Amino acid sequence: MIVRRLEDLIGTEFDVEGHDRDQAKGTWRSRRLLLARDKVGFSLHDTVLFAGTSTTMRYANHVEAVYVIEGSGKLRDLETGDVHALTPGTMYLLNGGERHTLDVEQDLRCVCVFNPPVTGREVHDADGTYPLLTEDD
Q1: Between the CA atoms of 127, 85, 112 and 123, what dihedral angle is there, to the nearest 10 degrees?
Q2: How do 83-86 and 15-18 pair as beta strands?
Q3: Tens digits of per-residue pLDDT, 77-120?
Q4: Which residues of 37-75 are buried (b: 16+ CB within 10 A; e: fewer)?
Q5: pTM here?
Q6: Residues 6+ apart with CB under 8 A from 14
């Protein structure tokens, strides 16, 4: 059994802030509740994307499910041009390597699940993609 409290992760290696490559300041903060080292087959994150920011990403090596629990924004699919409103109770799944941008209106707090699980060492590359790392890397 694994039990973790969000408040215990603040300020540790499990509390990561990142940014879009086009922005100098942070655009998001992710608190990693479960990582690959936990060996449960997925990773689980409590992530906040900051109001007034845009972040472009593409998960070519992972499937990500995102469930919005607070805030508002827009999800833009850069391949199709589709735009989706993000509000509490919205879930979206990135399962085709979709290049997308999150435009955040109010701090957007989400629960994110990755498969395969991330290790916590990944950094978005120039395309916005996480590399596929394992605990053995």
Answers
A1: 20
A2: unpaired
A3: 999 999 999 999 999 999 999 999 999 999 999 999 999 998 87
A4: ebeeebbbbbbbbbeebbbbbbbbebebbbebeebbbeb
A5: 0.89
A6: 31, 32, 33, 35, 120
